Amino acid sequence: MAVCEVGPAGKSCDGSSGDTGCTGIINFEEIDGGAATRMTYEIKGLTPGKHGFHVHEKADFSQGCASAGPHYNPHGKTHGAPEDEERHVGDLGNLEPGADGIAKGEIIDTLIKLSGEFSIIGRSMMVHADADDLGTGDHTEPGTNGKTSKTTGNAGARIACGEIKLLQPSTTVFASAPVYVQPSSTVYTSAPVYAPTVTKYTWNGQDFPSMEAVTAAMMANPAAAAAAAEPQESPKEEAPKEDAEQPQDEQKTRAVKPVKKGCC
Ligand SMILES: [Cu+2]
Ligand SMILES: [Zn+2]
After folding, report:
1. Ligand that comes closest to the CA of residue 128
2. Which of 131, 171, 227, 246 is deepest in the core (most CB within 10 A)?
3. Superfamily name with CATH number, domain 2-166
4. Beta bridge partners of 179
5. In this structure, what DSSP letter does residue 185 have?
6. Widest CA span of the chain, in angstroms?
7. Where are the domains of the chain?
8. Can you tell me whether residue 222 is helix, strand or coil?
């Protein structure tokens, strides 16, 4: 699970960090045992028409979105469409907003990874001012916007970006400490048994039952999303292994040990 909040200068969705007015949230979830990643996005404040949508190499926003580097391209390919063999890992095609300026949808991609050598965690999501021509446009002057199709898709200015961050699932642990009392009145105590029962997601100090609930909360409260821009430390609680020392042979134990009344 990962999340990315995008804003004009690599900041979160409070709209204070730039004047493009484009903000949004993208959630990432591994599916098919990590063979693919599902992205759900909701990007607001878009002008009509298509807007290039990419994973860029870095989450360096020291110069706003401009310092986030090129499209993430670990395999040395040229720019393309998401369905092309020849494409950057970061090439996710275009967003297309409705009349309300909101683009909302889902992308399933097999090159986008949340773990391993080519993980996109710690990289950035980018929304562009113009349509991505998917590598099929003018490439006569590489390096010049509008004529650099096989590198950038001629998608123009960078209007919103943000870091892709891992969202740690936290596990609620219910503990019980059963005490086994043997007929001999010798008391055996087992180690507590921990049973993880509920998986939840923690964001902004609150717990949510699902990624959808987290997204809804983020969209409902952009100011809090901005405040919670730093990743939350939520170390996973390890359920201790059950290694209760059960008496192996009650008869034998009794024979060896005298019965102790009131023993602890
Ligand atoms: Cu881009
Ligand atoms: Zn590209």
Report:
1. 1
2. 131
3. Superoxide dismutase, copper/zinc binding domain (2.60.40.200)
4. 189
5. S
6. 93
7. 2-166
8. helix
